[in-house]
Write a structure and sequence with these properties.
Helix content is 18%, strand content 30%. It is elongated, with a radius of gyration of 36 Å. The protein is α+β, with helices and mostly antiparallel strands and 387 residues long. The protein has helices at 75-78, 85-91, 99-106, 263-269, 274-277, 303-306, 315-333, 351-362, 374-377; strands at 6-9, 15-22, 26-30, 36-40, 44-46, 127-133, 144-150, 155-164, 167-176, 180-187, 197-205, 217-222, 235-237, 240-251, 254-255, 297-300, 340-344, 368-371, 381-385. Strand 2 (15-22) and strand 3 form a beta hairpin. The longest helix is centred in the last third of the chain and has 19 residues, at 315-333. The protein folds into three domains: 6-58 and 70-106, no CATH class; 127-255, Smr-associated-like (Immunoglobulin-like, Sandwich); 263-385, Ribosomal Protein S8, Chain: A, domain 1 (2-Layer Sandwich).
């Protein structure tokens, strides 16, 4: 576009002559009454004109008795920047087309889609769920974002649901392209309780090529709510610039399975006879009244030692916080055969103690356990030996 060219408006009736420009995007159009009208450059189109700047007819017409139309275009039209195909091709621009042609072009079906990028180590299925605070400096009041990550060469169709009473409610569903991530939702801290228990289901495939079948995804995940109150749990990752709390859904083709401990179930378990909650065989350990061993690792599971503030947290959340700390210590020392760990849980009603025993019986079957030294800990500790 240049000053002096005739233009018409795309989405409005009218037009005029270009009288100037304001910045890169605004065109000043002078109408027939001499008024300058500012218009976006994208909202005006140049009218094809001859060397005298008069509008040239769009199609040749012939009348009876008139001379036939010459097929040769005027010399000035070849010089027009919008009508010269040679100049357009040289400058990388498209030759001038009527607006109706643009609409017809937009309505054409898309027949080409670029192939998704695959990477060398992406043939194993890896799916993650990530949480990012929008403002890490205001962790107690900020909103959070949930993202799902497809770290594989497969397309993924996923659905995420949250548990509501005894049933489930779908929160999000979509299809992810290979090696991409997608925003699931943004939520307030007050909505955390609704997301404690999540279920991720889906399946993987490849488009327009053969592939190895992958197992269907059906993972139930418990979100550790107290972690959202701790800044250090949000760590750097290869997926985000911001620190994130990341949960594994599928790791190297294997879905993750968590062991859930329900507080009400534990309460009902402690009302049963003692021999039913204790193992049938108790391994031989050191005498209860033996002096404290320096090689024994002590872990305090009292909630006051784990959290600075427990306001607004339910008993179920508090119990799961203590069990998470128990699992973390166990996983950290699981390869140290013979390592002895004393978990100090207190006496209370025995809820935490029975939950720990249940974890040992189901998840850590190779480890042995017994009551810790009564002289040192009373009835409030359990001694675990890594097997």
């Amino acid at each position: 576009m240049k000053i002096g060219e005739k233009v018409r408006f795309l989405n409005e009736v009218g037009g005029g002559t270009i009288s100037g420009f304001q910045g890169k995007d605004i065109v000043m159009v002078q109408d027939d009454d001499g008024f300058d009208i500012p218009m976006l450059r994208s909202q005006v189109v140049v009218i094809e004109t001859n060397e005298n700047n008069f509008e040239r007819p769009q199609a040749p017409t012939s009348k009876p008795g008139s001379a036939p139309h010459s097929p040769k275009a005027p010399a000035a039209a070849d010089k027009h920047p919008h009508t010269s195909p040679a100049k357009s091709a040289a400058e990388g621009e498209r030759p001038y087309m009527d607006f109706a042609d643009d609409e017809a072009e937009d309505e054409r079906p898309v027949t080409f889609r670029p192939k998704p990028k695959e990477r060398k180590n992406g043939e194993q299925l890896n799916i993650f769920l990530a949480f990012i605070p929008e403002n890490a400096r205001e962790l107690t009041s900020t909103r959070f974002e949930a993202h799902v990550i497809n770290d594989s060469n497969y397309f993924l169709s996923l659905i995420i649901a949250s548990r509501k009473n005894a049933s489930w409610q779908a929160r999000w569903q979509a299809t992810l392209e290979p090696n991409t991530k997608m925003l699931v939702e943004s939520f307030e801290r007050s909505q955390l309780n609704d997301m404690e228990y999540l279920c991720i289901q889906g399946f993987a495939w490849k488009q327009d090529k053969t592939y190895m079948l992958q197992p269907a995804v059906n993972v139930q995940l418990r979100i550790d709510l107290p972690k959202f109150y701790k800044l250090h749990v949000f760590q750097k990752s290869p997926f985000f610039r911001e620190p994130a709390l990341i949960y594994d859904i599928v790791r190297d083709g294997k879905p993750i399975h968590q062991v859930f401990v329900d507080a009400e179930e534990v309460l009902s378990a402690i009302t049963q006879p003692k021999e039913e909650t204790m193992p049938k065989e108790t391994p031989k350990q050191s005498k209860p009244n033996a002096p404290r061993d320096k090689d024994v690792l002590e872990v305090d599971l009292h909630i006051s030692a784990l959290l600075d503030n427990t306001a607004g947290l339910s008993n179920s959340v508090l119990l799961n916080t203590q069990l998470t700390e128990f699992r973390t210590i166990m996983e950290r020392n699981i390869k140290k055969k013979g390592q002895r760990i004393v978990f100090i849980h207190g006496k209370g009603e025995g809820v935490l103690r029975n939950a720990i025993i249940k974890e040992l019986q189901h998840r850590y079957r190779n480890c042995t356990y017994q009551d810790a030294s009564f002289r040192e800990y009373g009835f409030g500790a359990t001694l675990v030996t890594i097997g």
